[in-house]
């Protein structure tokens, strides 16, 4: 009895479309380049409209040095993004090998694709609703917002005028991962400030100024590669610690680290957009079911709806998925019978069935001697067979 109740609750359609997400996938650290601006992340942040009409901030951050370039924008268009990429990144730091962005329409435009092709740039995109896959730029956006929020209410209306100072502050801050400031890793020395001039740290009138400058420059060039190597090692150490922490959380949940999903598994997808919507508080948190269509690696999957009329292939991260157990009412055995031989409205809704499809699936259930197994039925959907094709094979 206890096992029967447990299975009934586990397979309950209404229960499965509610509940929070869980941590399914291991952490896959981003490879660290040894050259500045070889791999960068781009993102556009929406902010309050300034007096000058600026509503967005576009930023590009280097994965090695954490050095950032940014500018305000009035409109979030592909032409503005392409101009930023050319003027602020390519013309200042050279052509990057890889840029990482989200799946926003301006980033996926033909113009951006052509710019990347002309300058031999590899454009990679993150999976939707998974900011962790582009966490570096997301963390910068949060820090930049905190810096700008410290201005007075009147000054916040002119945030575009204070953006350069905010960027300078960020570039001068020592990073926890690299143990150096982005400015130091970029140029080999710490930035000179009015405080340094006031205390005459750099005295141009000194007769030893030229000798000191020469010695300082030589020392800077000698140590620049060394501190970048140290930064690379520090980043890898931090990544290893983060990966270990994630693995521990997964082991606490599943007691194993093997891949949670396999080809052909039936899953539900979490509706992340509901987390910021009050109207979605009472809505179902999960949608589906879907079937794992392709394993892309590094915790990413292609999924396909079991509705044969929906041919769209979706790319999702494993942390947005959870296994789906098809209700037992759909899989009658030789020892149990369905009295009415009809599907309830709830099951029809979950499987996107119209009246003819529901009748077909009912026929499929009512003839146990000719019925396929559950696995065969799932494979039929996975291979794209229609309900009419399934029924034809039963006659």
Topology overview:
Blueprint: H1 2-10, H2 13-16, E1 39-46, E2 56-62, E3 68-73, H3 78-93, E4 98-101, H4 110-118, E5 122-125, H5 135-149, H6 153-156, H7 159-172, H8 182-187, H9 194-198, H10 209-254, E6 266-270, E7 286-297, E8 300-305, E9 313-317, E10 321-323, H11 345-350, H12 355-366, H13 374-382, H14 387-394
Parallel strand pairs: 1-4, 4-5
Antiparallel strand pairs: 1-2, 2-3, 6-7, 6-10, 7-8, 8-9
Helix pairs in contact: 5-7, 12-14
GO biological process, one term: DNA integration
Protein name: Integrase catalytic domain-containing protein
GO cellular component, one term: nucleus
Structural overview:
The chain has 395 residues and is of the alpha+beta class. The protein has three domains: 39-242, Ribonuclease H-like superfamily/Ribonuclease H (Nucleotidyltransferase, domain 5); 259-323, SH3 type barrels; 328-394, no CATH class. Helix content is 41%, strand content 15%. The strands form two sheets. It has a five-stranded mixed sheet, sandwiched between helices. Strands 9-8-7-6-10 form a five-stranded antiparallel sheet, with no helix packed on it. α5 (135-149) crosses α7 and α12 (355-366) packs parallel to α14 (387-394). 23% of the residues are buried.
């Amino acid at each position: 009895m206890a096992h029967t109740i447990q299975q009934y609750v586990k397979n309950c359609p209404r229960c499965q479309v509610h509940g929070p997400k869980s941590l399914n996938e291991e952490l896959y650290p981003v490879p660290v380049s040894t050259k500045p601006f070889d791999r960068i992340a781009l993102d556009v942040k929406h902010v309050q409209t300034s007096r000058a009409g600026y509503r967005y901030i576009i930023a590009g951050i280097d994965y090695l040095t954490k050095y950032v370039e940014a500018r305000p924008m009035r409109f979030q268009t592909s032409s503005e993004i392409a101009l930023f990429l050319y003027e602020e990144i390519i013309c200042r730091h050279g052509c990057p090998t890889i840029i990482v962005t989200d799946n926003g329409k301006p980033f996926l435009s033909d113009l951006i694709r052509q710019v990347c092709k002309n300058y031999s740039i590899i454009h990679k995109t993150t999976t939707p609703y998974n900011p962790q896959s582009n966490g570096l730029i997301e963390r910068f956006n949060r820090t930049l917002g905190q810096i700008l929020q410290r201005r007075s209410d009147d000054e916040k209306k002119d945030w575009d005028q204070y953006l350069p100072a905010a960027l300078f502050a960020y570039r001068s801050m020592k990073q926890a991962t690299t143990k150096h400031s982005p400015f130091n890793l970029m140029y080999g020395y710490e930035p000179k400030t009015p405080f340094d001039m006031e205390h005459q740290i750099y005295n141009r009138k000194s007769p030893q100024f030229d000798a000191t400058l020469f010695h300082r420059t030589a020392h800077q060039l000698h140590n620049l590669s060394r501190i970048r190597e140290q930064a690379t090692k520090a980043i890898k150490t931090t990544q290893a610690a983060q990966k270990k922490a994630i693995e521990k959380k997964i082991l606490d949940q599943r007691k194993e680290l093997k891949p949670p999903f396999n080809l052909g598994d039936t899953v539900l997808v979490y509706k992340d957009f509901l987390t910021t919507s009050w109207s979605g508080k009472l809505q179902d948190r999960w949608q589906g079911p879907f079937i794992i269509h392709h394993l892309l690696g590094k915790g990413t999957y292609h999924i396909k709806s079991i509705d044969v009329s929906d041919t769209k292939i979706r790319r999702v991260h494993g942390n947005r998925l959870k296994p789906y157990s098809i209700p037992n009412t759909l899989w009658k055995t030789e020892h149990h019978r369905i009295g009415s031989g009809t599907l309830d409205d709830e099951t029809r809704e979950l499987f996107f069935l119209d009246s003819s499809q529901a009748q077909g699936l009912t026929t499929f259930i009512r003839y146990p001697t000719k019925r396929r197994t559950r696995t065969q039925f799932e494979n039929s959907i996975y291979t794209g067979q229609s309900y009419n094709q399934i029924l034809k094979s039963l006659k």
